[in-house]
Design brief:
The chain is an alpha/beta fold and about 425 residues long. The chain is about 20% helix and about 25% strand. The protein has eight helices and 31 strands.
Length: about 425
Protein backbone atom coordinates (compact mmCIF):
# COMPACT_ATOMS: atom_id res chain seq x y z
CA UNK A 1 0.00 0.00 0.00
CA UNK A 2 1.52 3.30 -1.12
CA UNK A 3 0.38 6.34 0.85
CA UNK A 4 -0.22 9.37 -1.31
CA UNK A 5 -3.44 10.83 0.01
CA UNK A 6 -2.17 13.96 1.73
CA UNK A 7 -2.60 17.48 0.38
CA UNK A 8 1.13 17.71 -0.30
CA UNK A 9 1.17 21.21 1.16
CA UNK A 10 4.94 21.09 1.70
CA UNK A 11 5.37 20.61 -2.06
CA UNK A 12 3.04 23.48 -2.99
CA UNK A 13 2.81 24.91 -5.68
CA UNK A 14 3.91 21.71 -7.48
CA UNK A 15 0.81 20.15 -5.90
CA UNK A 16 -1.47 23.04 -6.84
CA UNK A 17 -3.37 20.96 -9.43
CA UNK A 18 -1.87 17.48 -8.98
CA UNK A 19 -1.44 14.99 -6.15
CA UNK A 20 1.94 14.57 -4.50
CA UNK A 21 2.76 11.14 -6.01
CA UNK A 22 2.18 12.60 -9.50
CA UNK A 23 4.87 15.31 -9.18
CA UNK A 24 7.49 14.93 -11.97
CA UNK A 25 10.96 13.69 -11.05
CA UNK A 26 14.29 13.37 -12.83
CA UNK A 27 13.08 14.74 -16.17
CA UNK A 28 10.74 11.89 -17.13
CA UNK A 29 9.46 10.07 -14.03
CA UNK A 30 6.92 10.77 -11.30
CA UNK A 31 7.39 10.35 -7.55
CA UNK A 32 5.06 7.36 -7.41
CA UNK A 33 7.27 5.49 -9.90
CA UNK A 34 9.92 5.02 -7.19
CA UNK A 35 7.95 2.84 -4.71
CA UNK A 36 6.08 1.05 -7.50
CA UNK A 37 9.35 0.17 -9.27
CA UNK A 38 10.87 -1.02 -6.00
CA UNK A 39 7.85 -3.30 -5.55
CA UNK A 40 8.07 -4.71 -9.08
CA UNK A 41 11.82 -5.28 -8.77
CA UNK A 42 11.16 -7.07 -5.45
CA UNK A 43 8.58 -9.42 -6.96
CA UNK A 44 5.57 -7.63 -5.47
CA UNK A 45 2.82 -7.19 -8.05
CA UNK A 46 -0.30 -6.45 -5.97
CA UNK A 47 -0.09 -2.76 -5.26
CA UNK A 48 -2.62 -0.17 -4.09
CA UNK A 49 -1.98 3.58 -4.20
CA UNK A 50 -4.05 5.55 -1.67
CA UNK A 51 -4.94 9.09 -2.66
CA UNK A 52 -7.68 11.69 -2.30
CA UNK A 53 -6.48 15.16 -3.46
CA UNK A 54 -6.11 16.20 -7.11
CA UNK A 55 -5.88 12.57 -8.18
CA UNK A 56 -6.87 12.85 -11.86
CA UNK A 57 -3.34 13.03 -13.30
CA UNK A 58 -2.16 10.28 -10.95
CA UNK A 59 -5.04 8.03 -12.02
CA UNK A 60 -4.16 8.61 -15.66
CA UNK A 61 -0.47 7.91 -15.08
CA UNK A 62 -1.16 4.67 -13.18
CA UNK A 63 -3.73 3.47 -15.73
CA UNK A 64 -1.50 4.16 -18.75
CA UNK A 65 1.72 2.87 -17.22
CA UNK A 66 1.28 -0.22 -15.06
CA UNK A 67 -0.46 -3.04 -16.92
CA UNK A 68 0.53 -6.59 -16.02
CA UNK A 69 -1.43 -8.34 -18.75
CA UNK A 70 -4.41 -10.68 -18.96
CA UNK A 71 -2.49 -13.71 -17.72
CA UNK A 72 -1.09 -12.08 -14.58
CA UNK A 73 -2.75 -11.57 -11.22
CA UNK A 74 -0.72 -8.42 -10.68
CA UNK A 75 -2.13 -4.90 -10.59
CA UNK A 76 -1.50 -1.32 -9.52
CA UNK A 77 -4.81 0.19 -8.45
CA UNK A 78 -5.85 3.56 -7.10
CA UNK A 79 -7.83 3.57 -3.85
CA UNK A 80 -9.35 7.03 -3.51
CA UNK A 81 -11.06 8.18 -0.34
CA UNK A 82 -14.73 7.25 -0.51
CA UNK A 83 -17.84 7.44 1.59
CA UNK A 84 -18.95 4.06 2.92
CA UNK A 85 -21.45 2.87 5.54
CA UNK A 86 -18.47 2.55 7.91
CA UNK A 87 -17.03 6.01 7.25
CA UNK A 88 -18.21 9.23 5.65
CA UNK A 89 -14.91 11.07 6.25
CA UNK A 90 -11.85 11.63 4.11
CA UNK A 91 -8.56 10.15 5.27
CA UNK A 92 -7.60 11.75 8.57
CA UNK A 93 -4.02 10.44 8.59
CA UNK A 94 -1.77 7.65 7.34
CA UNK A 95 -3.28 5.00 9.63
CA UNK A 96 -6.83 6.14 8.93
CA UNK A 97 -6.18 5.88 5.18
CA UNK A 98 -5.11 2.25 5.58
CA UNK A 99 -8.01 1.58 7.96
CA UNK A 100 -10.59 2.85 5.45
CA UNK A 101 -8.99 0.86 2.61
CA UNK A 102 -8.35 -2.34 4.52
CA UNK A 103 -11.49 -4.12 3.34
CA UNK A 104 -10.20 -4.00 -0.24
CA UNK A 105 -6.85 -5.50 0.76
CA UNK A 106 -8.23 -8.28 2.95
CA UNK A 107 -10.10 -9.81 0.00
CA UNK A 108 -6.67 -11.07 -1.18
CA UNK A 109 -6.00 -12.80 2.17
CA UNK A 110 -2.41 -11.49 2.51
CA UNK A 111 -0.01 -12.79 5.16
CA UNK A 112 1.80 -9.48 5.37
CA UNK A 113 1.05 -5.93 4.26
CA UNK A 114 3.81 -3.53 3.22
CA UNK A 115 3.06 0.16 3.73
CA UNK A 116 5.14 2.71 1.80
CA UNK A 117 5.32 6.48 1.39
CA UNK A 118 4.90 8.08 -2.00
CA UNK A 119 7.46 10.90 -1.67
CA UNK A 120 10.78 9.17 -0.95
CA UNK A 121 13.72 8.60 -3.30
CA UNK A 122 15.60 5.34 -2.73
CA UNK A 123 16.14 1.85 -4.15
CA UNK A 124 15.33 -1.17 -1.96
CA UNK A 125 14.79 -4.90 -2.31
CA UNK A 126 11.70 -5.50 -0.19
CA UNK A 127 12.40 -9.24 -0.43
CA UNK A 128 15.28 -8.76 2.03
CA UNK A 129 12.94 -6.83 4.32
CA UNK A 130 10.44 -9.70 4.19
CA UNK A 131 13.17 -12.26 4.95
CA UNK A 132 14.21 -10.18 7.96
CA UNK A 133 10.58 -9.92 9.10
CA UNK A 134 10.29 -13.72 9.04
CA UNK A 135 13.70 -14.47 10.58
CA UNK A 136 13.00 -12.26 13.62
CA UNK A 137 9.44 -13.60 13.99
CA UNK A 138 8.34 -9.96 14.02
CA UNK A 139 4.78 -8.72 14.11
CA UNK A 140 5.87 -5.36 12.76
CA UNK A 141 9.10 -4.38 11.00
CA UNK A 142 10.16 -0.78 10.44
CA UNK A 143 12.82 0.21 7.96
CA UNK A 144 15.31 2.44 9.76
CA UNK A 145 18.23 4.58 8.71
CA UNK A 146 21.28 5.81 10.69
CA UNK A 147 21.12 9.61 11.05
CA UNK A 148 22.90 12.39 12.90
CA UNK A 149 21.50 14.28 15.95
CA UNK A 150 21.12 17.34 13.71
CA UNK A 151 18.54 15.49 11.59
CA UNK A 152 16.60 14.03 14.53
CA UNK A 153 14.07 16.84 15.10
CA UNK A 154 12.45 16.28 11.71
CA UNK A 155 12.15 12.48 11.87
CA UNK A 156 10.70 9.67 13.93
CA UNK A 157 13.59 8.36 16.06
CA UNK A 158 13.58 4.92 17.62
CA UNK A 159 15.75 2.96 20.04
CA UNK A 160 17.02 -0.49 19.02
CA UNK A 161 18.38 -3.06 21.42
CA UNK A 162 21.21 -5.41 20.38
CA UNK A 163 18.75 -7.95 18.94
CA UNK A 164 17.15 -5.33 16.71
CA UNK A 165 13.91 -5.05 18.66
CA UNK A 166 12.51 -1.54 19.00
CA UNK A 167 12.05 -0.51 22.60
CA UNK A 168 11.22 3.18 22.17
CA UNK A 169 9.83 5.45 19.45
CA UNK A 170 9.66 9.25 19.56
CA UNK A 171 8.17 11.29 16.74
CA UNK A 172 10.38 14.33 16.01
CA UNK A 173 12.21 14.68 19.36
CA UNK A 174 13.28 18.25 20.08
CA UNK A 175 15.23 18.34 23.34
CA UNK A 176 18.90 17.36 23.44
CA UNK A 177 18.18 15.14 26.45
CA UNK A 178 15.54 13.15 24.54
CA UNK A 179 17.83 12.78 21.53
CA UNK A 180 20.74 11.64 23.69
CA UNK A 181 18.58 8.94 25.32
CA UNK A 182 17.69 7.50 21.90
CA UNK A 183 21.26 6.89 20.73
CA UNK A 184 22.05 3.24 20.00
CA UNK A 185 25.21 1.35 20.92
CA UNK A 186 27.63 2.29 18.13
CA UNK A 187 29.77 -0.85 18.44
CA UNK A 188 26.75 -3.15 18.12
CA UNK A 189 25.55 -1.51 14.91
CA UNK A 190 28.80 -0.41 13.27
CA UNK A 191 28.48 -2.95 10.44
CA UNK A 192 25.29 -1.31 9.16
CA UNK A 193 26.57 2.26 9.07
CA UNK A 194 26.10 3.52 12.63
CA UNK A 195 28.95 5.84 13.65
CA UNK A 196 29.65 8.43 16.32
CA UNK A 197 28.36 11.03 13.86
CA UNK A 198 25.25 8.96 13.03
CA UNK A 199 24.27 7.28 16.32
CA UNK A 200 20.49 7.52 15.89
CA UNK A 201 18.01 5.34 14.04
CA UNK A 202 15.24 7.10 12.10
CA UNK A 203 12.06 5.63 10.69
CA UNK A 204 11.92 5.69 6.88
CA UNK A 205 8.13 5.54 6.80
CA UNK A 206 8.25 1.95 5.52
CA UNK A 207 6.28 -0.55 7.60
CA UNK A 208 5.73 -4.29 7.19
CA UNK A 209 2.87 -5.70 9.27
CA UNK A 210 1.67 -9.23 9.77
CA UNK A 211 -1.92 -8.83 8.61
CA UNK A 212 -3.66 -9.91 11.81
CA UNK A 213 -1.51 -7.50 13.84
CA UNK A 214 -2.34 -4.59 11.52
CA UNK A 215 -6.07 -5.33 11.63
CA UNK A 216 -6.03 -5.36 15.43
CA UNK A 217 -3.90 -2.20 15.64
CA UNK A 218 -6.38 -0.31 13.47
CA UNK A 219 -9.43 -1.27 15.52
CA UNK A 220 -8.98 1.81 17.68
CA UNK A 221 -10.42 4.50 15.42
CA UNK A 222 -8.89 7.30 17.50
CA UNK A 223 -5.44 6.34 16.18
CA UNK A 224 -4.98 8.27 12.95
CA UNK A 225 -1.23 8.18 12.22
CA UNK A 226 1.37 5.40 12.12
CA UNK A 227 4.29 7.40 13.46
CA UNK A 228 2.36 9.27 16.14
CA UNK A 229 -0.14 6.59 17.23
CA UNK A 230 0.12 3.06 15.85
CA UNK A 231 3.85 2.34 16.19
CA UNK A 232 4.30 3.70 19.75
CA UNK A 233 1.23 1.75 20.89
CA UNK A 234 2.50 -1.47 19.26
CA UNK A 235 5.81 -1.47 21.15
CA UNK A 236 4.29 -2.84 24.36
CA UNK A 237 1.88 -5.25 22.65
CA UNK A 238 3.77 -6.67 19.68
CA UNK A 239 7.20 -7.85 18.56
CA UNK A 240 8.41 -4.75 16.69
CA UNK A 241 11.80 -4.95 14.97
CA UNK A 242 13.95 -2.60 12.93
CA UNK A 243 15.44 -3.40 9.53
CA UNK A 244 18.51 -1.22 9.04
CA UNK A 245 18.90 0.26 5.55
CA UNK A 246 22.36 1.74 4.97
CA UNK A 247 22.05 3.29 1.53
CA UNK A 248 20.69 6.43 -0.12
CA UNK A 249 17.25 7.54 1.04
CA UNK A 250 15.80 11.02 0.79
CA UNK A 251 12.46 12.43 1.84
CA UNK A 252 11.59 14.75 -1.05
CA UNK A 253 8.35 16.02 0.42
CA UNK A 254 9.44 19.70 0.50
CA UNK A 255 10.33 22.10 -2.30
CA UNK A 256 13.89 22.46 -1.03
CA UNK A 257 14.44 18.69 -0.71
CA UNK A 258 12.81 18.08 -4.10
CA UNK A 259 15.02 20.71 -5.75
CA UNK A 260 18.24 19.39 -4.19
CA UNK A 261 17.47 15.73 -4.91
CA UNK A 262 16.86 16.51 -8.59
CA UNK A 263 19.97 18.65 -8.95
CA UNK A 264 22.04 15.94 -7.28
CA UNK A 265 21.23 13.73 -10.28
CA UNK A 266 23.37 16.03 -12.44
CA UNK A 267 26.70 15.58 -10.60
CA UNK A 268 29.43 13.23 -11.83
CA UNK A 269 28.71 10.56 -9.22
CA UNK A 270 25.15 11.12 -7.93
CA UNK A 271 24.07 9.59 -4.63
CA UNK A 272 21.09 8.06 -6.41
CA UNK A 273 21.33 6.83 -9.98
CA UNK A 274 18.62 5.82 -12.40
CA UNK A 275 21.28 3.86 -14.31
CA UNK A 276 20.86 0.50 -12.58
CA UNK A 277 20.12 -2.53 -14.73
CA UNK A 278 19.29 -4.68 -11.70
CA UNK A 279 16.85 -2.16 -10.26
CA UNK A 280 15.34 -0.07 -13.07
CA UNK A 281 12.84 2.68 -12.36
CA UNK A 282 9.76 2.32 -14.55
CA UNK A 283 7.48 5.03 -15.88
CA UNK A 284 4.98 5.74 -18.62
CA UNK A 285 6.39 4.52 -21.98
CA UNK A 286 6.38 7.43 -24.40
CA UNK A 287 7.07 7.38 -28.12
CA UNK A 288 9.01 10.63 -28.31
CA UNK A 289 11.67 11.66 -30.80
CA UNK A 290 15.27 12.19 -29.75
CA UNK A 291 16.10 15.66 -28.46
CA UNK A 292 17.34 18.22 -30.99
CA UNK A 293 20.23 20.37 -29.76
CA UNK A 294 21.59 23.15 -32.00
CA UNK A 295 24.75 25.14 -31.13
CA UNK A 296 24.34 24.74 -27.39
CA UNK A 297 26.67 24.50 -24.40
CA UNK A 298 25.39 21.80 -22.02
CA UNK A 299 27.29 20.92 -18.87
CA UNK A 300 26.47 18.59 -15.97
CA UNK A 301 22.83 18.36 -16.94
CA UNK A 302 20.15 15.78 -17.65
CA UNK A 303 18.30 16.06 -20.95
CA UNK A 304 15.08 14.12 -21.52
CA UNK A 305 13.46 13.03 -24.78
CA UNK A 306 11.57 15.22 -27.21
CA UNK A 307 13.39 18.51 -26.43
CA UNK A 308 14.13 21.31 -28.90
CA UNK A 309 16.92 23.64 -27.73
CA UNK A 310 18.67 26.33 -29.77
CA UNK A 311 21.88 28.28 -29.08
CA UNK A 312 21.54 28.16 -25.31
CA UNK A 313 23.81 27.60 -22.32
CA UNK A 314 22.59 25.05 -19.77
CA UNK A 315 24.47 23.91 -16.66
CA UNK A 316 23.64 21.85 -13.56
CA UNK A 317 20.01 21.52 -14.61
CA UNK A 318 17.38 18.89 -15.32
CA UNK A 319 15.51 19.41 -18.60
CA UNK A 320 12.23 17.49 -18.75
CA UNK A 321 10.42 15.87 -21.65
CA UNK A 322 9.30 18.02 -24.61
CA UNK A 323 11.11 21.10 -23.30
CA UNK A 324 11.47 23.92 -25.81
CA UNK A 325 14.19 26.51 -25.10
CA UNK A 326 14.73 29.51 -27.38
CA UNK A 327 17.93 31.08 -28.71
CA UNK A 328 20.28 32.86 -26.37
CA UNK A 329 18.85 31.53 -23.12
CA UNK A 330 21.05 30.85 -20.10
CA UNK A 331 19.81 28.29 -17.55
CA UNK A 332 21.66 27.04 -14.48
CA UNK A 333 20.82 25.19 -11.26
CA UNK A 334 17.22 24.84 -12.42
CA UNK A 335 14.57 22.22 -13.01
CA UNK A 336 12.62 22.56 -16.24
CA UNK A 337 9.88 19.95 -15.81
CA UNK A 338 8.93 19.96 -19.50
CA UNK A 339 5.53 19.72 -21.17
CA UNK A 340 2.64 17.33 -21.61
CA UNK A 341 2.43 18.02 -25.34
CA UNK A 342 4.30 19.63 -28.25
CA UNK A 343 3.30 23.12 -29.39
CA UNK A 344 2.15 21.68 -32.74
CA UNK A 345 -0.38 19.49 -30.91
CA UNK A 346 -2.18 22.61 -29.71
CA UNK A 347 -1.94 24.42 -33.03
CA UNK A 348 0.57 26.92 -31.63
CA UNK A 349 3.42 28.50 -33.60
CA UNK A 350 6.97 27.41 -32.77
CA UNK A 351 8.42 29.42 -29.91
CA UNK A 352 5.07 29.99 -28.22
CA UNK A 353 5.68 27.33 -25.57
CA UNK A 354 8.45 26.59 -23.11
CA UNK A 355 11.34 28.99 -22.51
CA UNK A 356 11.53 31.96 -24.86
CA UNK A 357 14.54 33.68 -26.43
CA UNK A 358 17.20 35.42 -24.36
CA UNK A 359 15.95 34.22 -20.98
CA UNK A 360 18.16 33.95 -17.88
CA UNK A 361 17.02 31.45 -15.25
CA UNK A 362 18.91 30.71 -12.03
CA UNK A 363 17.88 28.46 -9.14
CA UNK A 364 14.29 27.93 -10.28
CA UNK A 365 11.69 25.23 -10.90
CA UNK A 366 9.63 25.71 -14.07
CA UNK A 367 6.62 23.40 -13.93
CA UNK A 368 5.05 21.66 -16.91
CA UNK A 369 3.46 23.62 -19.77
CA UNK A 370 4.66 26.96 -18.40
CA UNK A 371 5.20 29.60 -21.11
CA UNK A 372 8.13 31.86 -20.35
CA UNK A 373 8.26 34.90 -22.65
CA UNK A 374 11.30 36.35 -24.40
CA UNK A 375 13.85 38.16 -22.28
CA UNK A 376 12.48 36.92 -18.96
CA UNK A 377 14.97 36.97 -16.06
CA UNK A 378 14.30 34.68 -13.09
CA UNK A 379 17.10 35.37 -10.63
CA UNK A 380 15.68 36.24 -7.18
CA UNK A 381 18.55 38.70 -6.75
CA UNK A 382 17.02 40.02 -3.51
CA UNK A 383 17.34 36.48 -2.05
CA UNK A 384 13.74 36.44 -0.85
CA UNK A 385 13.03 33.23 1.10
CA UNK A 386 9.26 32.93 0.74
CA UNK A 387 6.81 34.97 -1.29
CA UNK A 388 3.62 34.57 -3.34
CA UNK A 389 3.83 36.64 -6.49
CA UNK A 390 1.88 37.15 -9.69
CA UNK A 391 2.09 33.77 -11.45
CA UNK A 392 5.08 32.65 -9.39
CA UNK A 393 6.00 31.55 -5.88
CA UNK A 394 9.22 31.56 -3.89
CA UNK A 395 9.85 28.75 -1.42
CA UNK A 396 13.14 28.42 0.50
CA UNK A 397 14.67 30.93 -1.91
CA UNK A 398 13.69 28.83 -4.95
CA UNK A 399 11.46 30.49 -7.56
CA UNK A 400 8.68 28.15 -8.68
CA UNK A 401 6.65 28.85 -11.82
CA UNK A 402 3.45 26.75 -11.50
CA UNK A 403 2.02 24.45 -14.14
CA UNK A 404 0.41 26.18 -17.15
CA UNK A 405 1.54 29.63 -15.97
CA UNK A 406 2.34 32.38 -18.48
CA UNK A 407 5.19 34.82 -17.78
CA UNK A 408 5.10 37.83 -20.08
CA UNK A 409 8.03 39.05 -22.17
CA UNK A 410 10.67 41.01 -20.26
CA UNK A 411 9.44 40.02 -16.80
CA UNK A 412 12.05 40.14 -14.02
CA UNK A 413 11.56 37.97 -10.92
Amino acid sequence: MILGGGKGSRLFPLTLIRSKPAVPLGGKYRLVDIPISNCINSGINRIFVLTQYNSESLNRHITQTYRFGLFSQGFVDILAAEQTPESVHWYQGTADAVRQSLRHILTYNPKVILILSGDHLYRMDYGKLYAHHLSTNADVTLCVLPVSPRQASGLGILKLDKSGRISQFVEKPESEKAIEALKVDVNSWKKVGVTEKRPLMASMGIYMFSTDVLVKALEDESKMDFGRDIIPAALSKSNVHGYVFNSYWEDIGTINAFYKANLDLTVTRPKFSFYDVQGPIYSHPRFLPSSRIQHCDLRNSILSEGCDIEESVISHSVIGIRSAIGKGSDISRSLILGADYFYEERGLPKGSMGIGKGCVIRGAIIDKNARIGDGVRILNEQRIRNHDGDNYYIRDGIVVIPKNAVIEDGTII
